[in-house]
Amino acid sequence: MLDRLLLRYFRAPEHPAKLRVVRWLGRAVLPEVGIVAPIHGELRLCLHPRDWIEYLLLRGDAYEPCTLHFLEANLRPRDGAILAGTNFGLHVAVAARAVGESGLVLGVEPQPEALLRARHNLRLNGLLSRVRLVQAALGREKRLAQMAWSATENPGTASLLDPGDGFVTSLQPLDAVKELLGAAPFRLLLLDVQGFELEALKGLHLAEGPELAVVELDPEFLTRAGTPAEAVVERFTAAGYSVTDLHGNPPLNLLSLPERNFVAVKSPSVQVHWVPRHLASGGKPGSARCGN
User: In the chain, where are the structural domains located?
Assistant: First the structure.
């Protein structure tokens, strides 16, 4: 009952004091894990408004609808997928539904709290059996690295580039992580690693890589890493992949892509279902709308 009442308030029209009220509710009323809300079709996720993305979803807004549609349309039963950057589990849950009981999704995430939230949401939807959660960051080689704790208001932006108190995490190459897929064919890679994209890709032999890759290019983190967006794309094109946006169009500007993601397709024989342009995006701050 409390969940339904709070959700009704979150999805009511905005008013000048609403954000202050929501923050107070988050501190004084909501349980630490948040409340359960219907999200993206039949999914039900436990969300808390302290995280701005979760608050968007609690309000009834969309978050990365084009990327989620791409996962749903292009993952098939029995497929294997690797999603790096699980956050609270939305994308992993969508992918797990798409691959079915016979498929496997690897959710790779260095932040312990994010892994626990993702696990909670996967269990809530009966999807844990289709997912293996991997507590690691991605890099070109196996080693240990210092990582700061994630920010409470946006755990999904945690990066190996962040300074501050934290913990030591394991860096693993994608080639090693890929072995956990076993017999499941490596159909799709989603890479959202906040500026460490090039380092992560250097740990993957793309000749044996996924049929499809969805890779985020965040201008702020690329600048901090000293990595040109073109260098990330070049990693794929040099291996024979074609690169487009989520709609299947050649990208005109790599730093203003819909939902900041480009798609790499291994060969012309790979079947791809592109995202319709009419889908609107909740997006990330400063990101282009999906229909752009």
Answer: 2-58, 65-265
